[in-house]
Design brief:
Number of strands: 12
Radius of gyration: 22 Å
Order of helices and strands: EHEHEHEEEEHEEEEEHHH
Helix content: 25-40%
Distance between the termini: 76 Å
Shape: globular
Structural class: alpha/beta
Number of helices: 7
Strand order of the largest sheet: 3-2-1-11-12
Strand content: 15-25%
Largest sheet: 5 strands, mixed
Length: about 300
């Protein structure tokens, strides 16, 4: 049995600021068509969408209709896992109050199938919507929607999410593989014991840190125990405003530096100005020195 793994489509009616597409709905339609083509070319039996089909719980009607139209064209079973962006207030009890709830009237939810194992090797699947996972399930394959970074270098600061190896170390009941959405950079992580974490990544570019990212899906062959990436779409930067992304990236870098300073226990005070001065004096952002001096001069002048 072959299964196409994809996630984080983030379908939306409003065009993101970093895009210049003349028709954003049509661009998203083409992205879904690329997933469908990958499914057809690789003769998959099922498609699993691992959460965040929509960018907001209540999406524009035009976008919802487009998704329904495109899903009808798939030549295989499509199963959908609710993600945090899909659910109002991130609460699964609100499923009937959101756009994903409309979709799931026609397409099945990706749910636990321990009793209905996959053909081939007979793998049992545990799948739960966002916020409903057991602590750590006992199964062959665990489908979940949670923030899992490829490694420590990819994590912006400690305490956010888990790394792939941390998740494997904690999930001793999962015998083969964990597949997850939420993190937007696709990867395969294989642990020392051969177990894997597979994160498909997002379907298109909507943020600064994805300027050079190539969207992809993964084809899992349950009989051969193989997982292979398949890149989809054209040039990832074709419809992206590069200057905007560069500005956003600089902002993100500055914010990350501030978080690193505030997150450390050394030399941090309760004074915003003291903490800001520490960031400036660190030398990583010399362009901030002038702004900092101007701010201090203005404050001193106000005191006089």
């Amino acid at each position: 049995m072959k299964i196409l793994l994809t996630a984080d489509w983030h379908i939306r009616g409003d065009r993101p600021r970093c895009r210049v597409d003349e028709d954003w709905i049509e661009s998203q339609r083409q992205d879904i068509a690329a997933v469908r083509k990958a499914a057809d070319v690789n003769s998959v039996d099922e498609v699993w969408i691992l959460g965040d089909l929509f960018h907001q719980p209540r999406c524009a009607t035009e976008a919802v209709v487009m998704v329904l139209d495109e899903l009808k064209k798939f030549n295989c079973q499509v199963r959908i896992l609710p993600g945090n962006h899909d659910l109002p207030f991130h609460d699964y009890q609100n499923l009937d109050k959101c756009s994903l709830g409309v979709i799931l009237k026609s397409y099945p939810e990706l749910v636990s199938r321990e009793a209905e194992v996959l053909p081939g090797e007979g793998y049992g699947v545990a799948a739960y919507p966002f916020g409903r996972d057991p602590t750590y399930p006992i199964c062959d394959v665990w489908a979940t929607h949670r923030l899992v970074f490829e490694n420590e270098a990819a994590r912006p600061m400690k305490g956010i999410g888990q790394t792939a190896q941390e998740l494997l170390d904690a999930s001793t009941g999962v015998r083969l593989m964990i597949v997850t959405g939420d993190y937007h950079h696709g990867y395969i992580h294989e642990g020392p014991d051969g177990r894997r974490v597979v994160t498909p990544g997002c379907l298109n570019i909507q943020a600064a840190d994805l300027a050079d990212y190539r969207p992809r899906v993964y084809i899992w062959d349950s009989c051969e125990c193989s997982v292979v990436p398949k890149y989809i779409g054209d040039d990832p930067s074709a419809n992206v405003v590069t200057d905007y992304l560069e500005v956003e990236k600089m902002r993100d870098d500055r914010m990350e530096k501030v978080l690193q300073v505030v997150g450390s226990s050394e030399g941090v005070s309760l004074s915003f100005m003291d903490n800001l001065e520490k960031v400036v004096q660190g030398g990583d952002f010399p362009q901030a020195a002038g702004v900092y001096k101007e701010l201090v001069d203005r404050m001193n002048k106000d005191r006089q």
